[in-house]
Amino acid sequence: MILDGQCHCGAVRFTVRLTDGLNTARRCSCSLCAKRGAVAVSAPLDGITIHQGADRLSTYRFNTGVAEHHFCSVCGIYTHHKRRSDPDQYGVNLACLEGQTPFLPEVEVLDGQAHPSDGNAARLAGVLRFTEGARDG
Predict the structure, then answer these.
(1) Nearest-CA neighbor of 26 among 120, 119, 106?
(2) Residuewise pLDDT in 10s, the chain (137 residues)
(3) In degrees, to the nearest 5, what angle opens at C-alpha 129 toward C-alphas 41 and 121?
(4) Lower CB density within 10 Å: C or N end of the chain?
């Protein structure tokens, strides 16, 4: 699955080749992801091509410094990150991808507080569910 993506302001534009479509959609409960609230899907390291705005991307690292969280320095939107749990993959912000929405019926939340790279078993922290509300007509 190949999709175009961009940050909120359009300064950063990219194409991504997902490893397994939306089947890898997930969130994480680590301190950064809990505040960020994004749903990420997976791409191989060679699966992202930045077409515009590479110079506008900023990178944030914390804790072990292994994960690289990239965001637009203009609008602040997280676009993708190099994973700590699998350094051969990027997590890509589903909301940045054309024609996609992060409001999926169910999204698994992985336990990022007890990270697998710290010797813990990978485990599910929970499941987020989205139910569309009533609309005024």
Answers:
(1) 106
(2) 999 999 999 999 999 999 999 999 999 888 888 888 899 999 999 999 999 999 999 999 988 877 899 999 999 999 999 988 888 999 999 999 999 999 999 998 887 776 666 666 667 788 989 998 866 65
(3) 60
(4) C
Closest CA to 90 of 41, 26, 36, 39: 41
First to last CA, the chain: 35
Q: Does domain 2-129 have CATH number 2.60.40.10?
A: no
Structure tokens at 52: 């515009």
Burial status of residue 67 (CB atoms within 10 A of its CB: 0-12, 13-18, 19 or more): buried
